[in-house]
């Protein structure tokens, strides 16, 4: 009986606690693209792309980022850099949360 009352109290307050921690459903993001071409003594071409997206909802937050750059000089590739990042977070209590962050990069030069 001593254990039953605290467990019952915890069961009744757990949904109320979870509701206060939950975040509204929201998407946000941004992106950028750049390009340039230069002629003269050398011919240079450069391209770049950056994308970011984030979602929050409930007790979860997810975000992804992608970045890519490419360049060549006189038709010889001199830059190729790709990067991707993913982040997932989960809120458990007002003081405890956990997350996973993964990162990948491919840089040829």
Summarize the SSE layout with pairings.
Elements: H1 4-21, E1 23-38, E2 44-58, E3 60-73, E4 76-91, E5 97-107
Provide a descriptive summary of the structure in words.
The chain contains one helix and five strands. It has one helix spanning 4-21, and strands spanning 23-38, 44-58, 60-73, 76-91, 97-107. A five-stranded antiparallel beta sheet has the order 1-2-3-4-5. A hairpin with a 1-residue loop joins strand 2 and strand 3 (60-73). The radius of gyration is 24 Å and the shape is elongated. The model is unreliable at 12-18 (pLDDT under 50).
Sum this structure up briefly.
The chain is 17% helix and 66% strand. The protein has one helix at 4-21, and strands spanning 23-38, 44-58, 60-73, 76-91, 97-107.
Order of helices and strands: HEEEEE
Strand order of the largest sheet: 1-2-3-4-5
Shape: elongated
Summarize model confidence as the mean pLDDT.
86
Low-confidence stretches: 12-18
The secondary-structure class comes to alpha+beta
Largest sheet, strands/sense/barrel: 5 strands, antiparallel
Helix content: 10-25%
Count of individual helical segments: 1
Rounded Rg? 24 Å
Name the features.
single chain, 109 residues, alpha+beta, 5-stranded antiparallel beta sheet, 1 helix, 17% helix, 66% strand, elongated
